[in-house]
Design brief:
This protein is of the alpha+beta class and 217 residues long. The protein contains eight helices and five strands; from the N terminus they run αββααααααβββα. A hairpin with a 2-residue loop joins β4 (189-195) and β5. α2 (44-65) packs antiparallel against α3.
């Protein structure tokens, strides 16, 4: 529990540094999860630092207390650290994987990428560890979180688009979308849509789309 609390403290402190709003902390049979109520268009760099802060703080905690005579501290630390870095939703490994993917590819496709990787990892997790009630409980919990993430993908994408209209975000990267497909939009990127032989700004295109005056995605 001390390892888990220090791990989550890392997420929380770095999130507070970037002025993110913390919603709640959830406890699982295999760990904990800090949830944030923030824009989906926050910089990838900020979110990456927040995600990485958990494992970094856990490593710091281990080396600070490794000289103490705590039974199984080393085993608990490495077990939790390695497990948490697996690319399975909602573990930190899946968040790191998704952020790296979103840096290069579209926001929409990142949900499918993480979903398939997570699903493929579950059988490997089952084969790697000895069968037990705890393992089954962990696998069921992970599977439910994977399904929830995939089920909410449309809501998350709609919110991702709406934020582009409601709030002023400043992005240095630029991307032109030739076919008007908003599913090609990326994080940390300002878009220009080319349609009917002329360019349309991101704000104008999305406003028409949500006003049902343009082509629905």
């Amino acid at each position: 529990m001390a390892i888990l609390l220090f791990h989550e403290l890392g997420h929380i402190l770095v999130a507070l540094y970037f002025k993110w709003h913390i919603e709640k902390v959830k406890l699982y049979p295999f760990g904990a999860l800090t949830l944030f109520e923030e824009h989906f268009n926050k910089p990838i760099k900020e979110e990456m630092w927040i995600v990485l802060a958990g494992p970094i703080f856990q490593i710091i905690f281990y080396y600070l207390f490794s000289n103490f005579d705590w039974n199984h501290l080393k085993e608990y630390h490495y077990c939790l650290l390695c497990f948490n870095l697996l690319p399975i939703v909602p573990l930190d490994g899946s968040k790191i994987m998704m952020l790296i993917y979103q840096y290069f590819f579209s926001y929409w496709s990142s949900f499918y990428f993480v979903f398939y990787i997570s699903i493929l990892m579950l059988p490997l997790l089952f084969l790697e560890f000895d069968f037990s009630l705890v393992l089954i409980l962990i696998l069921i919990t992970l599977f439910m979180d994977i399904l929830e993430m995939f089920y909410k993908r449309k809501f998350c994408f709609q919110r991702f688009l709406l934020e582009r209209i409601l709030y002023q975000f400043s992005f240095s990267k630029r991307k032109t979308i030739q076919d008007g497909n908003v599913k090609k939009m990326k994080r940390d990127t300002k878009h220009l849509f080319y349609q009917n032989n002329h360019f349309v700004s991101e704000e104008t295109y999305l406003q028409k789309m949500f006003d049902f005056k343009g082509k629905a995605w």
